[in-house]
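Support reply, case 0932

Customer input (verbatim):
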Amino acid sequence: MRKITGKQLAAVQSLYAKSSRSAGDEPDPRAARLAWAASIVGRAVSSFSDLSSEEAATLIDSLKRETGQTVTANPERKRAVRSARAENVAVFATADDLRTVHLWREGLGWSLEQLDAWLASSHSPTRGRKLLTRAACRATVTALRAMVRRRSTAKPAA
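Our regenerated output:
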């Protein structure tokens, strides 16, 4: 596990200062900042310097979303995905991949049970397999997107 880089530390501190979280009315702003970080990374944080590089990336992404900035993919993650494709290795789905699937599910107005039933059917792109890989999530999103578009362009029954 790699430690937080200097650039990441500066980014976390800068983005936190820009966020609505640093309103300035906290009795102990440092404690509030560390409590917020702990709630995101899921463990006690005594200093931003103690964060891993991955945890810092999670905090940066969270703060960017909160401040309305675009979240860019980690170049190292992109390299890992390209490398895995070259070696024909499955890349596990991320929380963002699954979140995208559920956004499109909600666009159809489906419950989780309806999505699970469809995924288990022979009509789904996964043909009964779970959404464990990025490829399965991408194929599912493509199919759900097509269903949403078909539904929105369908003519109402007369």
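We compared this against your earlier run and they match. Two observations from our side: Residues 6-72 form one domain. DSSP finds seven helices and no strands in the chain. Please reopen the case if you see a mismatch on your end.
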